[in-house]
Design goal:
The relative contact order is 0.10. Helix 3 packs parallel to helix 12 and helix 7 (133-143) runs parallel beside helix 8 (160-172). The protein has 2 domains: 11-273, Alpha-Beta Barrel (TIM Barrel); 285-376, Chorismate mutase (Chorismate Mutase Domain, subunit A), CATH 1.20.59.10. The protein is of the alpha/beta class. Strands 1-2-3-4-5-6-7-8 form an 8-stranded parallel barrel, surrounded by 5 helices. The chain has helices at 11-14, 26-30, 47-60, 87-98, 109-117, 127-130, 133-143, 160-172, 200-208, 218-222, 228-237, 264-273, 284-324, 332-348, 353-376; strands at residues 36-40, 65-67, 101-105, 122-125, 150-153, 178-182, 214-216, 242-246. The radius of gyration is 25 Å and the shape is elongated. It binds phosphoenolpyruvate and manganese (II) ion. Phosphoenolpyruvate (PEP) binds next to helix 6.
Length: 377
Amino acid sequence: MKEFTLDILPLHEWLDFDACLPCLPDRQAARQVHPLIISGPCSAESREQVLKTAHALAETKAVKIFRAGLWKPRTRPDSFEGVGAAGLAWMKQVKKETGLLTCVEVATPEHVELSVTNNIDILWIGARTTVNPFSVQEIAEALKGIDIPVMVKNPVNPDIGLWLGALERINHAGIRKIIAIHRGFYTYNSKPYRNSPIWEIPIELMRLCPELPVICDPSHITGNYLLLESVSQKAMDLEMDGLMIETHVNPQKALSDSGQQITPAELKELISKLVIRNHYPENSGFRDMLEQLRSEIDVIDAELIHLLSKRMHLVEQIGNYKKENNITILQIKRWNKVVRESLELGENLGLNKEFLVKLLRVIHEESIQKQTEIFNK
Ligand code: PEP
Ligand code: MN
């Protein structure tokens, strides 16, 4: 894969969210850890709904940025498609009356222009737009010469390349204030969620670009207000920088995403329950032990890699032999035996069966791939 680099400004250099979140339990507040909280309704529906929600959120003192969708990308055409540009004046009023920063979703150059001229503070690109490089490029062109932060949601499908590409396009347009939003991925069966979190994808993004702020949107991952807390906690335990959670003064009456929205009071409660853990252990005895155990793991990882390399050499030898003797690659009986015996051994050693099945599968796939290459030479 082509190298991935972004030229971005660290979050704390352009967004001041240093004030402790008073609704965090004391222990966390004392350690000055503050996830960035973005909240507001899925859709702006009326001036009253927007302002009531915003005022209630401002009162929680936990929220820094107010979100509301004005142009809604709906899957089916007969759903509520947002109030459009009419909502911009409501967002202005939110900013003036509450001091919250405002953000909206943009999907076209026209949305960008309208939002910027109406002093929206931050823009976000939605999952259905990130999938389309043409649309992202058009938005990027519209952003040239404008200094506004942009948040990029992951694409609907679990393709990290599209996410990286969208981030690069926005960055190449000169935008250095960028946040990635993890909102889960459509998979044929995402149960119990609306969108599968597939945490490996945002983790890979964080590995590729450690300075990029990544926040989690548990609302669109879960699609269900009952599951928000556990997904939010997981995001915090993976050291994500914040959360975007949909709130509505009357979630049952919401015109879009009703089942996943909560009230501002429920948001406050949810945040107060989150455990924000430390990055570094404070206790030096524990720190030493952690270092010690990690160095043992490093040794084992190196051994695993050596063993895998040895295994692949044997696979190649066998591949050459099979080719010379005109023998098939896959011999299901032999493979069955390997799986059966490995599972038996693994289970006796306390390894999880599902994990082992997955592991054996990737090793086997690679082995077949190696022998196929030899056959095709
Ligand atoms: C939204 O944030 O309301 C939205 C439409 O999200 P997504 O692009 O993640 O579906
Ligand atoms: Mn929504």
